UniProtKB/TrEMBL annotation:
GO terms for cellular component: nucleus. The keyword RNA-binding applies. Transmembrane segments: none annotated. InterPro entries: Integrase_cat-core, Retrovirus_Pol_polyprotein, RNaseH-like_sf, RNaseH_sf. The keyword RNA-binding applies. Residues 30-116 form the Integrase catalytic domain. SUPFAM superfamilies: Ribonuclease H-like. This is Integrase catalytic domain-containing protein. One of its GO terms (molecular function) is RNA binding. One of its GO terms (biological process) is DNA integration. PANTHER family: PROTEIN CBG26694, PROTEIN NYNRIN-LIKE. Keywords: RNA-binding.
């Protein structure tokens, strides 16, 4: 009976989703070969005093993060932070990945070009 139950549980999709012994997904190999070649940026809503947003930028090769807290999430303050704090320190990335939110559209690209 125990073998039958174990076999059924192993074949049950819902049981596998709820299992505490889920296997971890293998890490994906990055296609970049140098530091700060590919960078990802995302914004998180926070409640920390006067700060409302946290912009997180991360190097895909090393995982190195940089963050800034902002009161407004528009292209201008993001680019005002990005140019001196990222580009001046690490150089301009070859690839720049964003989540497609309104604050990271073409307006941000234009602001970064204008600032730098």
């Amino acid at each position: 009976m125990k073998k039958i139950v174990m076999k059924w549980v192993k074949s049950c999709q819902e049981c596998q989703k709820r299992s505490h012994l889920q296997q971890k997904e293998e890490g994906k190999i990055s296609a970049t070969s140098t530091l700060f070649e590919r960078v990802s940026m995302d914004a998180v809503h926070i409640k920390a005093g006067r700060w409302k947003y946290l912009v997180v930028e991360r190097d895909d090769f090393s995982g190195w993060p940089e963050t800034v807290a902002l009161t407004r999430l528009t292209a201008k303050p993001v680019s005002e932070w990005f140019n001196p704090e990222w580009i001046c320190r690490y150089g301009a990335p070859k690839e720049f990945t964003v989540d497609g939110g309104a604050e990271f559209g073409k307006e941000l690209q234009e602001e970064v070009k204008r600032e730098g």
